[in-house]
Design brief:
Strands 3-2-1-4-5-6-7-8 form an eight-stranded mixed sheet, sandwiched between helices. The mean pLDDT is about 95. The protein is elongated. The protein contains twelve helices and eight strands. Bound molecules: 1,4-dihydronicotinamide adenine dinucleotide (NAI) and (2S)-3,4-dihydro-2H-pyrrole-2-carboxylic acid (A1CAB).
Length: about 270
């Protein structure tokens, strides 16, 4: 099995997610930048990879030839064309990891050479700060050992869970897309303070810190969110009045609906 420190890693697609994961991996210090390569048709996105010391190329085949572990980091609709272009270069030694929303392991296995070691990954943007939430699912050709290797590598990007593929679309709604839902909440939180007279930049900074602090306490404090919420609510106080306004606005239903809609869209993207 591949040794982490000697692993050669390639990204096909040089966009936001390839950048976030490569940053997370390189920050761990386990992988030198010289072991990483990234490809894209245009050089528009190359500068931030080059700044990390990562090699760049316009050739997807070159990425496959260089790497043992290949992340497919293009938009879902481009996957068939991209895989078609690299298929002849894929060997049984390669580990292919798709992060494309919706695209199933069955589709990937159909597109790739028979017996390929393939996995699905659903990451999110905070991988770049090593605070991502990632879910991995193994294809039929990927052994538990391969799953364990990937998990070890990706731990530098944040929380990594390995689970059945049936969870991936829900994880996409919860966390891949969920990051954007939190940003909308952050904007709205700050806008509320702006409405009440606070300068915008200060309100944005305080909203960000409020979400970070609440998130860390929730993740690390070992308490259920309902318990933490109760600890903030003084009877007859400010918080319960604010919460009443949130409930009247349907925040919970809207949030559940957002996760549901994103999950359903992911499974729709996966339908052929
Ligand atoms: N952005 C996010 O927060 C998340 C994205 N994803 C998934 O990650 C994948 C990539 O998404 P983003 O990074 O956001 O997209 P992006 O648009 O930022 O990056 C896509 C990259 O692919 C490149 N590309 C286009 N055609 C190509 C080709 N034929 N060969 C090689 N590269 C090509 C583009 O030049 C660009 O660099 C998608 O499948 C998406 O579903 C998953 C989780 C979160
Ligand atoms: O919006 C999308 O389709 C991608 C997948 C999860 C986050 N961004």
């Amino acid at each position: 099995m591949e040794n982490l420190s000697q692993l050669k890693i390639g990204f096909i697609g040089a966009g936001n997610m390839a950048f976030a994961i490569s940053q997370g991996i390189l920050k761990s210090g386990d992988i030198p930048p010289s072991s990483v390569i990234v490809s894209a048709p245009s050089k528009n996105n190359f500068a931030r990879f080059q700044a990390m010391g990562v090699a760049v190329t316009h050739s997807n085949e070159e990425v496959v030839d260089f790497s043992c572990l290949v992340f497919l980091a293009v938009k879902p609709h481009l996957l068939p064309t991209v895989i078609n272009g690299i298929s002849e270069h894929i060997t049984p030694q390669h580990i292919i990891v798709s992060m494309a929303a919706g695209i199933t392991l069955a589709t990937l296995e159909e597109l790739l050479p028979g017996g390929s070691r393939v996995m699905r990954l659903m990451p999110n943007l905070p991988c770049m700060l090593q605070e991502g939430a990632l879910l991995l699912a193994c294809g039929t050709g990927a052994s538990q050992e391969v799953g364990a290797l990937l998990k070890t590598l990706l731990c530098s990007c944040g929380l990594v869970e390995v689970g059945p593929e049936t969870w991936i679309d829900a994880h996409t709604g919860l966390s891949g897309s969920g990051v954007a839902f939190v940003y909308v909440f952050a904007e709205a939180l700050a806008d509320g303070a702006v409405k009440m007279g606070m300068p915008n930049t200060l309100a944005q900074r305080i909203a960000a810190q409020t979400i970070l602090g609440a998130g860390r306490l929730l993740r690390d404090g070992g308490k259920h969110p309902a318990q933490l919420r109760a600890e903030v609510c003084t009877p007859g106080g400010t918080t319960i009045h604010g919460l009443h306004a949130l409930e009247k606005g349907g925040l919970r239903a809207a949030t559940m609906g957002a996760v549901e809609a994103a999950t359903l869209r992911a499974s729709q993207l996966g339908r052929k």
